[in-house]
């Protein structure tokens, strides 16, 4: 598998900072013919620096495998100005491990879901990856017990749906398997067992509250619910000694959603809750790296929707 190198990402960041002002960067995404790129424009909050916008744009594109699409957009609007050069050369990769191949299947499911609906057929995955159909089915069967996908089988074949854990594992291979390799039942004890139950309960209530956010359409609620499910997945990976910190992240997420649920949300309260969620996630980020990105996305999504930025 060939992906942009970190040198490429740094070169892209430097190019955007040097060649675009804030309005031009917004226009790059807003006027794109790629709907996934257009959505990135909503990540930019008033009052933030150009550097913050560039970082958000690149992180957004990396999470959604849109770096190539962004480069194509730059070439369309600024032809010949960004040279891919040697750092962009796709290099010969060693043979992929089984974990890499499973992540490739997860990525294909996510991309197909973005364009064709929730359920993705095994044949469409096979066509997209150029992978043998039986091999695709074998990988799907391997990933279902770990909670990465939900499978729906019929006489015509297998359809797959990516789970919250699968969305996280697509970027972080440590989530490919539950903590105990035999399944996704976690053996917990002491204070953290209670904290873990509380986290699930808190985030379940948070998901229910999302449905009551006024003036929000179904796509917004679904996207926010998916982020909360991803947050639940990554918080399960916190070690016992970080149980209270993990619970704090869940509580701030609930507080933020509850504030957004009001008919006339208090924007000051929203900003305080959003900052609290991000800071709580920062305390766990060195131990559970994905938590900060997911928590920040939840916070930014709600702040942007409510106009509290």
Task: Please explain how this structure is put together.
The protein is mainly alpha-helical. It has 3 domains: 6-88; 98-175, Winged helix-like DNA-binding domain superfamily/Winged helix DNA-binding domain (Arc Repressor Mutant, subunit A, Orthogonal Bundle), CATH 1.10.10.10; 190-306, no CATH class. It contains 15 helices and 3 strands. It has helices at 6-19, 22-30, 35-40, 50-63, 67-77, 85-88, 98-116, 122-129, 133-143, 164-169, 190-210, 218-235, 243-260, 267-285, 290-306; strands at residues 120-121, 149-154, 157-162. It has a 3-stranded antiparallel beta sheet. Helix 14 runs antiparallel to helix 15. It is globular and about 55 Å long. 33% of the residues are buried.
User: Which strand order spans the largest sheet, edge to edge or round the barrel?
Assistant: 1-3-2
Give the mean pLDDT: 81
**What percent of residues are in strands?**
under 5%
Helix and strand sequence: HHHHHHHEHHEEHHHHHH
- Unreliable spans are 85-94, 179-192
Q: Please, how many helices?
A: 15
Per DSSP E runs of 2 or more residues, the count of β-strands stands at 3
Shape, per Cα inertia axes: globular
First and last CA, distance: 39 Å
Q: How many domain regions? A: 3
Instruction: Summarize the biggest pleated sheet.
Output: 3 strands, antiparallel
What would you call the structural class?
A: mainly alpha
Task: Please estimate the helix content.
Answer: 55-70%
**Assembly state (oligomeric):** single chain
